[in-house]
Amino acid sequence: MDKIISILAGVLKIDSSRITMETTPGDVENWDSLAQLSLIQKIEEEYGLTLDIREILEIKKVGDICRILEKRGVRGRWGVRRICATSSAIRKVCAVQDD
Amino acid sequence: MSSADTSNKIRPDKTKLLPHQRIEADLVLELPNVGLLFKSKAQKTPKKVFLIAPDVVDETYTYEAFLRWIRAWEAWFGNRGVRKGTRINLIIHNSSSFVAIYFAALGRGITVVPINPNLAPDEMVYIIKDSRSELILFEKSVSKKVEQVQMALAYGLPFIDDEVVGKEATREAVPEDTDSRQVGLLDEAVIIYTSGTTGNPKGVVLNHMNLLADAKAIAEWFNFNEETRALCVLPMFHNNGQVVTLLAPLYAGGSTIITKSQTGLWPFWDLVRAHKATWTSITPSILSILLQYRRSHEGSTLKGIICGGQVLKRTVQENFEKTFGVPVFEGYGLTETTSFACFNNNQAENRVAEVVGRSLPTNEMAILDPEGKEVGPGMEGEICIRGYNVACEYLGLPEKNHQAFANGWFHSGDYGFKDEQGYYHFLCRHDDLIIKGGENIYPAEIENVLFKHPSVLECAAIGVPHPLLGEDICVFVLLDDARITDKELKEFFSGRIAYFKQPQQILIVNRLDGINEIPKGPTKKILYRELKQYYHDHIAKDH
Q: At the fourth CATH level, which superfamily is domain B2-418?
């Protein structure tokens, strides 16, 4: 299972199949401020980085987290490896996988 | 409604006040409503920063710029016939948009009834119906939920996306002047819904006098001035966020940094540093959270933290102050007192340990016995409050009003004592209210949901200790089909009640030792204390 999806599923206590790159806090009833705290802490621990204020404010959906990780050079370890097709467009997403 | 003397000072006409709002001290204000408060400050310091909404690209508004936005909203309301006396719901998280609508509505005498966007659709429907609101403004992120609300309402109401209107409003012809002068101190301003013993929330009606009196008292207590920058991390749909970190700094001509409730906690110290926040107001739970998720506070500009909403443990306060070097000023108040009714002394060195403080000049407090007589120093009794910041009533609940606003006092339901020096001490509540992270939740809210499950025979919800939130929710359930699992019951809550009210622990009585049913007294009233004792003796010790 992709690492970031696994982190999200664990923190939000939901099945990973419910998580897409477009999932927002409004879509998951327990994605509240406390869950957001745990999520950021877990991401920082797991990827060994410290998110800055802009990055935290940027997180409006799951895809934003992936984009931030990609920008932070997580690519080398987990990489952008998947191209997702939607009905309207081909959308590049940052699917993060374990080493 | 009010009288103005030659120096343009306004005093409420005491003969028009409700008995529980009359006190000996005078209230002297400069303006009769919240809308005019903003406009007077905008006139005085147009170029000064009023509001910062941190985001990927920060939104920063001077008083002058924000006034233009407010006037655009006023014009939008005016052009659509939304008049004085109309009630509107706002289903909007903390944002600049919420603030603009808030001031525009209050300036026109429109009552703002905010709804927590995290509530379940059924809970929203109840508030919309109970408040008899005629217009609902919501943000895009809740549009799916709003669709369900629209379907559940048996009657049509205009539901309008605030973003769409925001763009539209700025194009509206802005009138030179509005009718803000027609809105008086005793006109209804906001209705804040808070948990009720029956399971349905009750609407606390606050007028302009309530908001202005409390904002003034807080601003003066903490010496807020034009340099004050208050960081608002608490939600605006509750009083604390609205009054302590928006209206009180505004009263002093200061500024507010408004954070989206979802993201404000992790970058708390970054926000303080980046925007030079000088004050904030948070709950004891947030103090614990900031201690647990310890981040660098280097370069902090905070002068003090105002703290209330639940019991503040001395160890948490001391640990926080030692770690972050910022004094925490504890206070006590309720939705019914607009926000705070008393505070510990300002100036860190003058604070007194183990107290919730002294009464604000805008209200009086007393400890009353069950017969309504004031008891002496050190004697326990109910904490009662009266004054300019005490709410008008609970909306449409005459019986509850009769009990709570009796004999010229608001009866809080909280118990404590006053010491020889006049400081108030909070002891406990005498009902079974659960306070989770500063949110009030009565057991009936949770039990009413569970009783809809076909296999539930009896149930009772209690508050159990939680290291960060103060209390969390545990439910004892007696089932007629013991094969049902606690996981199934937890899932049953999903979508029926806001997540923060959902129990994290469900104990199925059929499988517990030493208990066969939900304990009840002679009148069949649930004995919550016995369940708490059982939890303490049998469950907590195993965790």
A: ANL, N-terminal domain (3.40.50.12780)
